[in-house]
From TrEMBL:
Pfam families: HupF_HypC (PF01455). Gene3D superfamilies: 2.30.30.140. This is HypC/HybG/HupF family hydrogenase formation chaperone. One of its GO terms (biological process) is protein maturation.
Length: 75
C-alpha cells in the first residue's frame, strides 16, 4: 500500500522545495507540479510532490494522521 502525505510548501528553488508536515520539514522534488507556489499544499510520496491539494482537505488528512499516531492502533 502506498501513502501520500500532505504538506505545505515553505520554499521553492528550481524544481526542489521544502515542505512542512506537522513539525517536520522535508526536501521534495516539485517537477510534477510546476504550477505550485509557496503556501500551497501538495501530496508527497517517495520524495516527490505528486499533486496539489486543497488546504482544507490537507488539514483534515493531517488531523486524521495525527489521531492515528496518538492512538493505540499504532502502538
Amino acid at each position: 500500500m502506498c501513502l501520500a502525505v500532505p504538506g505545505r510548501v515553505l520554499s521553492i528553488k528550481g524544481q526542489m522545495g521544502i515542505i512542512e508536515v506537522g513539525n517536520i520539514k522535508r526536501k521534495v522534488f516539485l517537477h510534477l507540479v510546476p504550477e505550485v507556489s509557496v503556501d500551497d499544499y501538495v501530496l508527497t510520496h517517495a520524495g516527490c510532490a505528486i499533486q496539489m491539494i486543497d488546504e482544507v482537505e490537507a488539514k483534515i488528512t493531517l488531523d486524521i494522521l495525527k489521531e492515528l499516531a496518538e492512538s493505540e492502533v499504532c502502538r
